[in-house]
């Protein structure tokens, strides 16, 4: 049996995006096991991860779910996040993963996120961080 610890799940999101901040708060309320951590794409943790694991890749303007050296981008990241949450969300994640056109819908929403939902001046990781904030270790503040 493998005794290695389970991977730390880190969701990289667009920091100033109001829709993304709302989605992170939604996930935090449902993640009773506190399995997910969060970091803005513009933050130090995300930049360090990119430098280490994706140096030649084009940096996507989408959410990215990271677990060690593995990562999922965009609609795939959302589906995986749902499957990490407690019941009934894994069922919804499975349904979402098999939804026709989910990647097109994701890109369409992502394209219009600032127009429809706006931008926030303050990032979720602004110090002092809210008590419920869980950022990848080490904390940037």
Strand content: 5-15%
Order of adjacent strands in the largest pleated sheet: 2-1-3-4
Helix content: 40-55%
Structural class: alpha+beta
Give a written overview of the molecule.
With 141 residues, the chain is of the alpha+beta class. The protein has one domain. It is built from 5 helices and 4 strands; from the N terminus they run βαβαββααα. Strands 2-1-3-4 form a 4-stranded mixed beta sheet, sandwiched between helices. Helix 1 links the parallel strand 1 and strand 2. The protein is globular.
Keywords:
4 strands; alpha+beta; 5 helices
How are the SSEs placed, and which strands pair?
Layout lengths: L8 E5 L4 H13 L5 E5 L3 H10 L10 E4 L2 E4 L1 H10 L4 H9 L4 H16 L24
Parallel strand pairs: 1-2
Antiparallel strand pairs: 1-3, 3-4
Short description:
This protein has helices at 18-30, 44-53, 75-84, 89-97, 102-117, and strands spanning 9-13, 36-40, 64-67, 70-73.
């Amino acid at each position: 049996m493998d005794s290695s610890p389970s991977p730390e799940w880190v969701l990289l999101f667009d920091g100033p995006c109001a829709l993304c901040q709302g989605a992170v708060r939604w996930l935090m309320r449902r993640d009773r096991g506190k399995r997910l951590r969060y970091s803005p794409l513009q933050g130090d943790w995300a930049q360090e991860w990119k430098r280490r694991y994706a140096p030649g890749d084009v940096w996507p303007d989408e959410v990215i779910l990271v677990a060690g050296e593995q990562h999922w981008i965009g609609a795939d990241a959302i589906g995986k996040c749902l499957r990490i949450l407690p019941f009934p969300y894994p069922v919804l994640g499975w349904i979402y993963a098999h939804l026709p056109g989910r990647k097109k819908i994701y890109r369409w929403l992502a394209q219009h996120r600032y127009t429809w939902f706006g931008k926030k001046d303050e990032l979720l990781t602004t110090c002092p961080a809210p008590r419920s904030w869980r950022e990848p270790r080490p904390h940037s503040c």
